[in-house]
Design a protein that fits this description.
about 120 residues, 2 helices, mainly alpha
Length: about 120
């Protein structure tokens, strides 16, 4: 009889190990799918952010060159200070708007990433 208990115990341990391995495999596949989806969402956000940064760099460089061109035509110190003041005000407004747009893109990307993770966890759970 002791041999029967031994075989039954070994079978129970083997069955539990197989069930555990199957669960781990299922969870690993779900985690891998979640990470792939999360990576794709992150890359989209990064690409959108980088494209907007390049757009802003182009706008800002064009503005700076135009300002320099205008400065070349200045005839008096008063005109120089008025032009500089106007350019600085416009630049500040532009930078503020650009920062808000970039913050919105970053927030959108963060929300999308969080939603992807939540969705993956809900599917896995």
């Amino acid at each position: 009889m002791p041999a029967d208990f031994s075989n039954a115990g070994a079978k129970a341990v083997r069955d539990a190990a197989e069930q555990g391995a199957a669960q781990v495999e299922k969870m690993t596949a779900a985690a891998s799918a979640m990470m792939n989806g999360n990576y794709a969402v992150n890359m989209k956000g990064v690409q959108e952010y980088n494209a907007k940064m390049l757009e802003f760099a182009n706008v800002n460089a064009t503005s700076a060159f135009e300002f320099m061109r205008q400065l070349a035509t200045v005839k008096s110190p008063t005109e120089f200070f008025a032009m500089s003041s106007n350019h600085m005000r416009q630049a500040f407004e532009t930078y503020t708007r650009q920062a808000q747009e970039l913050a919105a893109i970053a927030q959108k990307a963060t929300t999308a990433t969080t939603d992807t993770i939540k969705s993956g966890l809900n599917k896995a759970g």
